[in-house]
Design a protein that fits this description.
CATH architecture: Alpha-Beta Complex
CATH superfamily: Ribonucleoside hydrolase-like
Largest sheet: 8 strands, mixed
Strand order of the largest sheet: 3-2-1-4-5-6-10-7
Distance between the termini: 21 Å
Structural class: alpha/beta
Shape: globular
Bound molecules: beta-D-ribofuranose, calcium ion
Number of domains: 1
Helix content: 25-40%
Length: 315
């Protein structure tokens, strides 16, 4: 049976691929709805981009819900320096078509709560590929849903790897560390894909070409926007391609044999100073802290990209 997911995202190039991968794998994933949060760009921009991506996939019937425009406590931080002004800029300069649809009336946080409450117990998986504001707000408003969720799959954090927005912090966690901390302390069944794994999944020139040539009509558009996405990381870090962070979450749900990890205790540092927003994992169980997350550390990058290309080609 397909895994029912709510995808909470801030598209964003890699979020866009996560959405498309989920839509391209109907035997494994049923997308109940997209909930959107402010992150890579403003909420208005991330909602527009979610609608654009659905239009690209000819799946405008999938419902989009706008969520929180800003973090719980701190001021908003965005990432136009990585994703461009639109949040989904392309190398060719031709943006994805303007959506004909709009977000639904309901707030994303209410949608998350209502959907989990109205579904069979432990049948819904929440996937979070942006700042954790919507998820934290839902857990705070309706703590009963934490145990009703099947699982929460997060892209966020950096354990052994350095950060990308401060030396210590990964962007999604840094934007709303207070939300992230409350989510990691919630007791939800969490699987987390941080930089330790996502940095292994780089969009090399050969992979970009393969997306362009072998992933059909959608692949051509995806290659154009990933070509833009590659530019910042390649010039900033000297890598052979940007890491394709967010789709790791969905790929794991489709084929768990692609990745490996271990259960451990993860905490989020919300104290002021250089470690603000840092995720700390008790890798060697040196404390008595109870494990609260499956931390993914290894994966097969070739098979990961093969899966993406195969699934995009079906859209
Ligand atoms: C994360 O931040 C965003 O820029 C990406 O979409 C990804 O979710 C990587 O730090
Ligand atoms: Ca994201």
């Amino acid at each position: 049976m397909a895994t029912k997911i709510i995808l909470d995202c801030d598209p964003g190039h890699d979020d866009a691929v996560a959405i498309l991968l989920a839509l391209g794998a109907p035997a494994h994933i049923e997308v109940l709805g997209l909930t959107v949060v402010g992150g890579n760009v403003s909420l208005q921009g991330t909602v527009t981009n979610a609608l654009r991506v659905l239009m690209l996939a000819n799946r405008e019937e999938v419902a989009v819900y706008a969520g929180c425009p800003r973090p719980l406590v701190r001021e908003m931080v965005t990432a136009e320096h990585v994703h461009g002004e639109s949040g989904l800029d392309t190398a060719s300069g031709e943006l994805l078509a303007v959506p004909k649809t709009t977000a639904r009336e309901k707030h994303a946080v209410n949608y998350i709560i209502d959907t989990i409450r109205q579904s069979e117990s432990k049948s819904v998986t929440l996937v979070a590929t942006g700042p954790l504001t919507n998820v934290a707000a839902a857990f705070a408003m309706a703590p009963d849903i934490v145990d009703e969720l099947k699982q929460l799959v997060i892209m966020g954090g950096a354990f052994h790897e350095p950060g990308n927005i401060t030396p210590a912090a990964e962007f999604n966690i840094y934007v709303d560390p207070h939300a992230a901390r409350s989510v990691f302390e919630s007791g939800a069944a969490i699987t987390v894909f941080g930089f330790d794994i996502t940095h292994q999944m780089r969009i090399t020139p050969a992979r970009l070409k393969s997306i362009q040539n072998n992933a059909g009509r959608t692949g051509k558009v995806v290659a154009d926007f990933l070509d833009f996405f590659n530019q910042y990381d390649m010039s900033k870090y000297g890598w052979d391609g940007a890491p394709l962070h967010d789709p790791c979450t969905v790929a794991w749900l489709i084929d768990p044999t692609l990745f490996e990890g271990s259960q451990m205790a993860v905490t989020v540092d919300t104290t002021d100073g250089p470690n603000f927003g840092r995720t700390v994992a008790d890798w060697y169980a040196v404390t008595e802290q109870k494990p609260n997350a499956l931390v993914i550390s290894h994966g097969d990058s070739d098979r990961f990209f093969e899966l993406i290309i195969k699934r995009l080609a079906t859209l």
